[in-house]
Amino acid sequence: MRGAQIERESDYLPQAAKLKQMKRGLIERDRKEIDMAKEAKITIHPAFQTGEISERLFSAFLEPIGTMVNGTMYNPKHPTADDQGFRRDFIDALRETGLPAVRMPGGNFVSSWQWKDSIGPLKERRVHLDPSWHQVITNEVGYDEYLQWAQKVGTRPLVTVNMGTGTIQDAMDLVEYTNHRSGTYWSDLRRKNGHEEPYGVKMWYLGNEMDGPWQLGSFSSDPQGYGSKVLETAKAIKWIDESIETGVCGSSASFMEGFPAWDEAVLDVCYDVVDYVSVHHYHGAPPGDVRALLGGSLYYEDFINTEVAMMDYVAAKHRSPKKMMLSFDEYGAWMRPNEPLHPGLGRYNMARVHYRFDPERQYVLHDPDNMPEHTFPGGDMIHALSMASIQLAFLRHADRVKIGCMTGGLDALASADHDHVWKSASHYVFTQLMQYARGVSLRTGVECETYDMAGYAIDDTSQYPGKEGVPFIDAAAAWDRENGRVTVFVINRNEETAYPLQIDLKGFADCRPLAAYTMRSDDPDAKNSYGNDRLIAPQEITACTFADGILQIRVEPLSWNVFVFS
Ligand code: AHR
Asked: Does residue 208's CB lie within 6 angstroms of at least one atom of ligand 1?
């Protein structure tokens, strides 16, 4: 999203109107026509494995903007607030999901974050401006609170180091404060601040979107300079704690002018000291254009393929036996209105878009108890599918994509307003993936109808080339040997047509279906709410047949489906 504001629900009304029409059309349609849809087929085989699925593939990203921290995570006046002011209703809801990891606090905010001013007695903490989001940071939720909140949720924090205004020394002190046992200034300060044990943070990102001209302390025109800073910082912090892993920023979107040459130039300098390339991507589609929204995961796949090729090329140049992995530590897909384009002002007009000086703009102080209405985009069926489609793309590339932190992932798992917490449609998709996408990822051979997408631009930076042959059936599969389970995940991207679907598992001896779930909604505007969080929820499917290793089923328009086999 970079500098864009999170849109309000009203921005999505055109989408709703269009989808309503679509729904009417569907209901009026002749049933026979639906049944004439070409049959789709998915084949999986134990011999065709892609790679181990990392536990951190289905994680979340948290940044203190909007109400994500002040209001949802932290509100000392909330009836369930604990002694640190954290909402226990939110903690409990997340704890129940088994969320493996959270990148926190992350995003543009971190590039001027002075973590040292966020620790120690509350009254002594310094209040700072966060120029990237024009907000006042009171540091009531400081570094220790983030890590302790993660402990309460039972999830692992993935920490981002300030590489914008921060120094190598700041990063070294941060790791010493966090992970060193005792006997040094910083580790003893942590103990004095009430945390005797080291936090043991494993994953450290070295900067946020450092290729972006919008980033404070950006290296957009100096990839080698960034690579050198990463080299020296990673070396230093790994010497403080040899067990940690580090991530270096690659492109913050495949639209970036420097992509993929910027990434290569960076990695060329620091290949030996980093373990992950951290990339971000936000897909946008015009309101109402479901096919462009759900086809978005194809751009993710292009991005993954290019990054992997780039990483392997650099490895070859360095004669390195190390295999670099990818971390998508921010991602999302939303419908959003087009912004005016400025043709002729440079390739992507990055500077015009992101250096907006607005004398009217005021710094905002977020009062956690004055939380505006729930405004995070998503929560409906279409956006549950668009996020799921990206998650399936990660699963298909599980051999190289090892971390995936969904932007708004906490909201997807536990939607919250000022008072309550509930389960959105995304909650069910996300938790089913956490539960069933384990073990190894299997290749899915998909035969089905396809559609073509015309190229389009949402704004000066988000420009999409057209795509031909987008499969209506979006699938991924996992083989969890430990639990003796094979699971096939299927999205039907078609807004009109239900498909008869065959899933061929003949390669798995003695395989039989254990459970099948489907989730869809007739009403594109429908969202779950507090007290009504099964309005959109997975239903168990009973109408299917299984014989000779083949499951026959019907997948409804715009549906999420999970088929579990023993
Ligand atoms: O999620 C909002 C912003 O999007 C993050 O701060 C930044 O990293 C990305 O561009």
From this structure: yes
How does DSSP assign 76-145, residue by residue? Answer: TTSTTB-TTSBBHHHHHHHHHHT--EEE-S-SGGGGG--GGGGSS-GGGPPPEEETTTTEEE--SS-HHH
Statement to judge: residues 192 and 233 lie in one domain? yes
- Please check whether residues 404 and 452 belong to one and the same domain: no
pLDDT in tens, 251-274: 999 988 899 999 999 999 999 999
Residue of 130, 137, 208, 220 with the most ligand 1 atoms within 8 Å of its CB, for mutation: 208
> Is there a domain that residue 352 lies in?
no
| Tens-place pLDDT, residues 21-30 | 554 444 444 4
Q: Which domain holds residue 308?
A: 54-111+145-342+376-438
pLDDT the model gives residue 413: 97
pTM over 0.85: yes
Residues with active-site annotation? 209, 330
Task: For ligand 1, say whether the CB of 295 is within 6 Å of any of its atoms.
Answer: no
Q: Among 61, 68, 163, 330, which is best to mutate for testing ligand 1, by the most ligand atoms less than 8 A from CB?
A: 330
Residue 5's pLDDT band, with cuts at 50, 70 and 90, is very low
**CATH number of the domain within which 40 lies:** 2.60.40.1180
Residue 465 lies in a domain: yes
Where do we find the tokens 């190390």? 322
